[in-house]
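Changelog-adjacent note: as of this version, every example in the card shows the full chain rather than a window. The one below runs 214 residues end to end.
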Amino acid sequence: MAKGTVVIDPGHGGTEDIGGSDANHAVSFSGVLEKTMTLQLGLLVRDALLAANGAGHNFTVVMTRTTDVNLSLAARANVARDHKADLLLSIHFNGFNAAVRGVETLVRPVADGNVNHDDDTAFARKIQQRVFDAIHAKDPNTKDRGVKDQKLGVLNDVALGNTAANHRCRACLVEVEFIDVEAVDKLLNTGPSAAANRRDIAHAITAAIIEELK
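Full-length structure tokens:
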């Protein structure tokens, strides 16, 4: 059985940049906004986690947002602190030059105050592998871009409530794919199997969280 409190953070939202959080960043090939896709996937993950409670697990799931609003990066992390969360997963999508592909998962570097880098990295590797495998099963042209260190405000241990002596919350940020690529847009938004593909990715994330909390 897996149990614990999980915070799901759909990146971006709203219409104004707030406290380091852009209202939106990437835009899909067909014009779907990243903020819309992060919320859509985040809610699917929430629902999959809650459904797992009926399969013998025991999760409390908290969303940083459930509507089209923006929160500062610190406020997002504070949700984990205030709920004494075991995990925080921030969900994002990439965009670059309509050609670069792949999945990557980010953790905060030790040099930027990460007091539980090894634990964060172990969690991130589970997320990375499961999400990559789910997408690769649909499209072998995706790339495994791996787990990387990056200074991100939503992963700040002080805001998460972690200290060197007490650091229960593991946190990472997944960049699911590059949505400005037409093939990715078809996979996740415009193609006939897009809804099923999104559900499969949500279930992959859920499986990683269950593995981490067992």
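Structural remarks: The first strand starts at residue 3 and ends at 10.
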